[in-house]
Design a protein that fits this description.
Blueprint: E1 2-6, E2 9-11, E3 17-18, E4 24-25, E5 31-33, H1 35-51, E6 54-61, H2 68-76, E7 81-86, H3 95-109, E8 114-118, H4 129-137, E9 141-151, E10 154-160, E11 165-171, E12 174-178, H5 190-196, E13 201-205, H6 238-248
Parallel strand pairs: 1-6, 1-8, 6-7, 7-13, 8-12, 9-12
Antiparallel strand pairs: 2-5, 3-4, 9-10, 10-11
Length: about 250
């Protein structure tokens, strides 16, 4: 069984600095694998160990994918090999453009049985790439998958709904978007890190141009900072004071 685990590289949010004019500085932000994408890699590894198979990592992005430390980190998480698809336009790509790039990557990889993606990227978190990728491939597609197992030529998935768990069977190949609760991603040990350096990395480029963007980002600003009011409420009628103060805002 060949399983593709997709992941996106994005800036470490703790390293992003808000300037006085509310614009954001990414100068000190290290690139990392998205937190939700680690769930996809872990799920792929566990599934491959259970049923037998190969886990292929696939990431579409920019120059950050050339970082050897970052690719080694991805491979140490349980991937058997890594495929990167690079283009200068991909770091700022919309979800549909990203899905289109991933579809091109999967086409170049060849025969694939299952594609797993995280619930959303750590930066935009649109939660759309998995659904759009499945539509582009023409494969059965599920989101909000909280548990899964392979049974012959189909996969059985538990989907989290608002007040219930839905159990769905879909034939393979398929695309599944996973919740963050599906597993606890592993922390790579020294043995994993050393082995990662010997695993194959294939570098691809776009075979076709990305579709045109449907929207443009005008600006990204941090929330406006407001000084603390330093309003102290005391006494038995503090709840009444609080209610009155909130109404006055």
């Amino acid at each position: 069984m060949r399983i593709v685990a997709c992941f996106k590289v994005s800036p470490e949010d703790q390293d992003i600095v808000a300037r006085p004019d509310r614009t954001l500085s990414f100068d000190r932000a290290q690139q990392k694998i998205g937190a939700y994408d680690l769930n996809a890699i872990e799920a792929a590894r566990r599934l491959a160990d259970e049923v037998g198979g190969t886990v292929i990592g696939l990431s579409a992005g920019g120059a950050a994918l050339a970082n050897a430390k970052l690719t080694k980190d991805a491979l140490s998480r349980g991937l058997d090999e890594l495929v990167t698809l690079t283009d200068d336009a991909l770091p700022a790509a919309e979800s549909y453009q990203t899905a289109s790039a991933l579809a091109q990557g999967i086409a170049q990889i060849g025969a694939v049985d299952l594609v797993l993606v995280g619930a959303g990227s750590s930066d935009a978190y649109t939660q759309q790439v998995g659904n759009q990728l499945g539509a582009l491939l023409g494969w059965p597609t599920l989101n909000a998958v909280d548990a899964l197992k392979v049974d012959g030529d189909h996969v059985v998935a538990d989907r989290l709904l608002e007040d219930a768990v839905q159990v769905v069977e879909v034939t393979l190949p398929a695309v599944l978007s996973l919740t963050s609760g599906i597993n606890e991603p592993r922390i790579a040990g020294m043995k994993d890190i050393l082995a990662a350096g010997k695993k194959p990395v294939t570098k691809l480029t776009l075979a076709e141009p990305l579709p045109a963007a449907t929207a443009a980002t005008d600006s990204i600003l941090a929330p406006e900072q407001v000084d603390r009011g330093h309003v102290l409420l005391d006494g038995a009628d503090a709840p009444t004071q609080l209610a009155a103060y909130l109404k006055s805002l």
